[in-house]
């Protein structure tokens, strides 16, 4: 198999989110969802991967793997357990984590919102209530005051399009609504929150004396295709699906350009509200009618049933770059492979796309560092480079994790590495 070198500016990292790995009895919306028996499994967020207690061990694992940058989130419900009440012990805990990862040579990338809300915030209407934007921005201010001397890289909101559609269009995420008008309102409010947060983080860190701030969002991007390439109706359905799910969202969040069905509730001026293009990419949707999420029998799939389509990463990067020409950070890219039988092939294929990219790509965060709590499916779906035995909490670096470690060390995939780690592997058909 052929080897390849990676772009010189590309930093290689991994990502996690707080609720999916920390554990603990935290009053956030997903733990409340678990209590309401709305998950597909009986697993508990209270256990997860116990990272809240084992954070030093996990950072040591990253350091041994050579991970250059780590995208992680802080839990809003830990930091602000009651409205206006901030937990200094939780803040100090996160500071210790960040300080230690820096000590280990790992650059932090801090995500401020990753799907979970404090229960008290949700009961006030969450992001469906425009007046709650100031509450989110208060939390952002506390986070920057607490960590701004340590962290220069920020993701304000993770996958606002997934958060809105899955939670407010009958897709099973909290709060479990099925109201497209609420989807429109939530996305409009969140876009305003991102724009104000972008400005606030820059302003606060400038006052601290820093000029290296990088702020963006992590937008979930899908490649789209018709089931029948000769169908004009299906082609129009692709355009509609892309527009509603990601294009209109990207324009609002990145450029402050609000187009139907979103609304400019804050009177924001068009501009540039990102320092990088955060791309979360996993799969491709095939479409017959708008909103479809279909796969073809002949296409390779992972253990979630998602199509494996590495070249789609190049497609969505180009689409975002056309909206806002900024460097790309692949803020999430991973695969559900419970037995680690083809993750190394996925890494080989996905990074080969970046090696050939004509667009500047500065970061690649594999999702996920650890096997984690995969939202509705709990402990049953494994994305990690590091295996977690949830009963014992023992960590073991997988073969794909060792492959990634060598990629980082060489900043390349050599022919020898490809032969040892990738040759003979195949995706599911």
Summarize this entry quickly.
By secondary structure, this protein is of the alpha/beta class. It has helices at 18-21, 29-35, 51-65, 76-79, 88-103, 119-123, 133-147, 160-168, 180-207, 232-255, 312-323, 343-355, 399-410, 415-421, and strands at 4-5, 11-15, 69-73, 107-111, 153-158, 214-226, 277-287, 328-333, 361-367, 386-389, 394-397, 412-413.
Molecular structure report:
- The chain has a single domain, classed as TIM Barrel (Alpha-Beta Barrel).
- It has helices spanning 18-21, 29-35, 51-65, 76-79, 88-103, 119-123, 133-147, 160-168, 180-207, 232-255, 312-323, 343-355, 399-410, 415-421; strands spanning 4-5, 11-15, 69-73, 107-111, 153-158, 214-226, 277-287, 328-333, 361-367, 386-389, 394-397, 412-413.
- 40% of the residues lie in helices and 16% in strands.
- An eight-stranded parallel beta barrel has the order 2-3-4-5-6-7-8-9, surrounded by five helices. A two-stranded antiparallel ribbon has the order 1-12. Strands 10-11 form a two-stranded antiparallel ribbon.
- The protein has 429 residues and is an alpha/beta fold.
- The mean pLDDT is 98.
- It starts with a strand and ends in an 8-residue tail after the last helix.
């Amino acid at each position: 198999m052929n080897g390849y070198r990676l772009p010189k500016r590309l930093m290689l990292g991994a990502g996690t989110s707080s609720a999916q790995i920390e554990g603990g009895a935290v009053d956030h919306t997903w733990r409340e969802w678990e209590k309401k028996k709305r998950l597909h499994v009986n697993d508990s967020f209270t256990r997860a991967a116990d990272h809240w207690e084992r954070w030093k061990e996990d950072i040591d694992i990253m350091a041994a793997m050579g991970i250059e940058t780590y995208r992680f989130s802080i839990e809003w419900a830990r930091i602000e357990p009651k409205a206006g009440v901030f937990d200094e012990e939780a803040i100090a805990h996160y500071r210790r984590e960040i300080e230690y990862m820096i000590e280990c040579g790992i650059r932090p990338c801090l995500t401020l919102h990753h799907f979970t809300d404090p229960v008290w915030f949700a009961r006030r209407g969450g992001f469906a209530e425009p007046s709650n934007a100031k509450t989110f921005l208060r939390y952002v201010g506390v986070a920057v005051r607490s960590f701004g001397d340590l962290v220069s890289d920020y993701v304000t909101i993770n996958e606002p399009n997934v958060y809105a559609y899955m939670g407010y269009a009958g897709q099973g995420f909290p709060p479990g609504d099925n109201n497209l008008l609420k989807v429109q309102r939530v996305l409009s409010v969140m876009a305003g929150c991102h724009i104000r947060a972008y400005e606030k983080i820059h302003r606060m860190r400038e006052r601290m004396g820093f000029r290296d701030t990088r702020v963006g969002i992590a937008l979930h991007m899908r490649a789209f295709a018709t089931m029948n390439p000769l169908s004009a109706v299906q082609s129009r359905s692709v355009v509609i699906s892309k527009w509603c799910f990601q294009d209109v969202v990207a324009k609002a969040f990145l450029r402050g350009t609000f187009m139907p069905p979103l609304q400019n509730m804050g009177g924001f001026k068009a501009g540039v509200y990102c320092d990088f293009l955060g791309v979360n990419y996993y799969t491709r949707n095939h479409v017959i009618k708008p909103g479809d999420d279909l796969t073809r029998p002949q296409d390779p799939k992972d253990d979630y049933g998602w199509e494996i389509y590495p070249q789609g990463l190049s497609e969505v990067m180009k689409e975002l770059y056309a909206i806002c020409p900024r460097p790309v950070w692949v803020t999430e890219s991973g695969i559900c492979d419970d037995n680690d039988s083809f993750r190394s092939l996925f890494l080989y294929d996905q990074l080969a796309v970046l090696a050939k990219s004509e667009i500047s790509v500065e970061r690649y965060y594999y999702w996920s560092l650890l096997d984690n709590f995969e939202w509705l499916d709990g402990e049953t779906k494994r994305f990690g480079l590091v295996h977690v035995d949830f009963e014992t909490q023992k960590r073991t670096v997988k073969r794909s994790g060792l492959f990634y470690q060598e990629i980082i060390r060489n900043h390349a995939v050599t022919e020898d590495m490809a032969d040892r780690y990738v040759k003979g592997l195949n995706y599911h058909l």
